[in-house]
């Protein structure tokens, strides 16, 4: 029987004992199980205890055989002298055969255990170890795969969490920026009520409307600096300049007048006004009030008179007194005796209802402003 020192090896390298035991003499890929017994390296395990018990049984059987042999030898001497019967001698010989068989059986059991039972049991346990080890390896791999999957899911969830957290922060920032707090008391108006564009139509500020970057959505007009928006016909726009004084009369307070100043004159006509009447050309003008009392509210209607010029010590008559014929201007004045006299005059600047007379009429003369058609010149 070949022998080699005991070695440690992986269970997956051990073949089946049924195929390898007979050919290898109990040696399976370098592992000699009998060497483990002979070199006394089993310790106090179950196999070592069983071997000790079987050895003890063999020693007991050998001792019993010695005793029986001595008894048989004595019986033979006694039989020769005919001190005992033949049957008694035969009984002693049968006991000797039993003792010899007992010794042979004990030794055979010990040898079978060493040569067959122990290697077989060791191979079975080693196979179980191999299977358990492989199962452990598979379990570890499965758990590692699961851990890798969990880690990948965790990393993905962590990235999504960070993205959602950033998005939440942006939304919270947007919500915070959507809350606009007024810095001064007043009324909230949609759009920019101060810097209106005269070059294009204003965007409508309403729910659901699209607004561009830089668009003024809300305005709180200052009650201390109110203004009036008005349109000036193209025939008079050349007379209007910034800095001119204006008189403002409110429809809600007709007994009061307010002074103002022209602060803005558009260089282009109002496109909204010409949309409905293409031949109409009016220019937006803004008059800012000098004194805004508590009774003035945004959105009130007002009548504005712009003082384009101030003339002192001039003669002027109502516009109704002027008649035009062939490009010349005439008036009818009352002479001595309450007679009518048609007089050619030269006119100067006009205002709302009055026109300056530079030549043809003197201060204090009476002129007719209506009803001259039934009269002939020189009649009373």
Give a written overview of the molecule.
Helix content is 39%, strand content 20%. With 380 residues, it is of the alpha+beta class. It folds into three domains: 11-154; 224-310, Elongation Factor Tu (Ef-tu), domain 3; 312-380, conserved putative lor/sdh protein from methanococcus maripaludis s2 fold, CATH 2.40.420. It has a five-stranded antiparallel sheet with strand order 5-8-7-6-9, with no helix packed on it. Strands 10-14-13-12-11 form a five-stranded antiparallel sheet, with no helix packed on it. It has a two-stranded antiparallel ribbon with strand order 1-2. It starts with 16 loop residues before the first helix and ends in a 21-residue tail after the last strand. Residues 1-28 have low confidence and may be disordered.
Helices and strands, in order, run as HEEHHHEEEEEHEEEEEEE
Instruction: Name the structural class.
Output: alpha+beta
Secondary structure tally, helices: 5
**Helix content class:** 25-40%
- Strand content is 15-25%
What separation lies between the terminal Cα atoms? 171 Å
- Shape assignment: rod-shaped
Estimated radius of gyration: 67 Å
What does the oligomeric state look like here? single chain
Topology:
Blueprint: H1 17-24, E1 27-28, E2 31-32, H2 33-38, H3 46-80, H4 86-178, E3 189-190, E4 218-219, E5 227-233, E6 245-250, E7 257-265, H5 271-276, E8 282-289, E9 302-307, E10 315-318, E11 323-325, E12 328-334, E13 340-350, E14 354-359
Antiparallel strand pairs: 1-2, 3-4, 5-8, 6-7, 6-9, 7-8, 10-14, 11-12, 12-13, 13-14
Helix pairs in contact: 3-4
């Amino acid at each position: 029987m070949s022998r080699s020192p005991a070695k440690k090896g992986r269970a997956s390298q051990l073949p089946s004992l049924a195929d390898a035991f007979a050919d290898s003499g109990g040696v399976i890929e370098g592992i000699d199980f009998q060497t483990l017994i002979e070199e006394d390296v089993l310790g106090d395990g179950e196999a070592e205890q069983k071997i000790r018990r079987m050895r003890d049984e063999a020693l007991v059987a050998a001792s019993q055989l010695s005793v029986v042999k001595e008894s048989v030898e004595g019986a033979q001497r006694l039989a020769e002298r005919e001190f005992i019967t033949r049957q008694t001698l035969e009984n002693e010989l049968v006991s000797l055969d039993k003792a010899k068989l007992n010794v042979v059986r004990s030794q055979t059991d010990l040898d079978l255990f060493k040569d067959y039972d122990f290697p077989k049991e060791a191979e079975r346990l080693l196979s179980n170890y191999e299977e358990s080890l492989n199962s452990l390896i598979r379990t570890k791999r499965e758990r590692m795969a699961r851990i890798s999957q969990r880690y990948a899911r965790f990393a993905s969830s962590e990235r999504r969490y960070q993205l959602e957290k950033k998005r939440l922060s942006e939304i919270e920032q947007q919500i915070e920026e959507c809350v606009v707090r007024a810095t001064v008391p007043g009324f909230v108006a949609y759009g920019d009520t101060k810097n209106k564009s005269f070059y294009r139509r204003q965007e409508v500020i309403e729910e659901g409307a699209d607004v561009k970057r830089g668009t003024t959505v809300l305005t709180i007009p200052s009650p201390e600096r109110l203004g009036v928006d008005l349109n000036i016909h193209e025939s008079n726009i050349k007379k209007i300049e910034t800095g001119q004084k204006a008189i403002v009369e409110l429809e809600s307070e007709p007994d009061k007048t307010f002074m103002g100043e022209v602060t803005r004159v558009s260089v282009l006509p109002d496109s909204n006004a010409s949309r409905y009447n293409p031949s109409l050309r009016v220019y937006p003008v803004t008059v800012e009030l000098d004194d805004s009392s508590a009774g003035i509210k945004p959105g009130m209607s007002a009548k504005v008179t712009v003082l384009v010029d101030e003339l002192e010590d001039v003669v002027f008559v109502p516009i109704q007194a002027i008649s035009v014929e062939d490009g010349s201007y005439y008036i009818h004045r009352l002479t001595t005796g309450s007679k009518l006299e048609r007089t050619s005059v030269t006119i100067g600047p006009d205002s709302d209802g009055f026109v300056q007379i530079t030549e043809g009429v003197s201060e204090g003369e009476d002129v007719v402003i209506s009803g001259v058609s039934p009269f002939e010149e020189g009649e009373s």
